[in-house]
From TrEMBL:
This is IclR family transcriptional regulator. The keyword Glycosyltransferase does not apply. The keyword DNA-binding applies. Residues 2-61 form the HTH iclR-type domain. PANTHER family: HELIX-TURN-HELIX TRANSCRIPTIONAL REGULATOR, ICLR FAMILY, HTH-TYPE TRANSCRIPTIONAL REPRESSOR ALLR. It comes from Streptomyces corynorhini. SUPFAM superfamilies: GAF domain-like, Winged helix' DNA-binding domain. GO terms for molecular function: DNA binding; DNA-binding transcription factor activity. Coiled coil: none annotated.
Amino acid sequence: MSQTVDRALSILPLLARGPADLGQVADALGVHKSTALRLLRTLHEHGLVYRQQDGRHRLGARLFALAAEAVENLDVREIAHPHLLALNEECGHTVHLAVHEENEVLYIDKVESRYPVRMYSRVGKPVAITVAAVAKLLLADLPEGERRALAERLDYPLYTARSTPHAAAFLKELAAVREQGWATDLGGHEESINCVGAPIRGADGRVVAAMSVSAPNVVVTAEELLALLPLVRRTADAISGEYSGTTASSP
């Protein structure tokens, strides 16, 4: 039975490369045509494979519907939370998770630091979009035209002397973030708070969320926080792998 399931599932990536006839499927699986036909018929009955008029087979609409439904019902917060807890346990600092929704970047999860000094951020609250590390990560992934249009319509409040002053500077920073795959906020929103973040990607490689570690400079310096970047990126990669279904479940 397990061999039959394995063979049937092996047909799907084959057809993902394009339609194939019965002989091509049989050759790829290393089985007789009668066996390949039986597998194709079963997949067809479930809507996962469709037989074209020319006799070739392609992926069926049901497969795409299932994929879309699965993605729609994925909860990145639920998947990410155990990883955020583990990161917080290891470094002790505040950990955030954020998403881009309806022209805002919102915190959807937060794990508080272990020390008495707390940040004012809270779940459900929009971030300072022109300076926050998570916002830079999410907006940097937008297509160039969308990035430029968004940057031109944003306001650029000068929270501190290190805040992003205008659209040109913001676009330059987003380009750097897109290239390097991580982002920082070193006193751009609050003079005393530094932050380093990394993107969480879906199966298609697009950024679906962003996570960060933040700490006041009375606890750690900016350089000490930046030293945590490899750990932050490994955590983001682990969440990405689990979210996209390419790695095992959370710790």
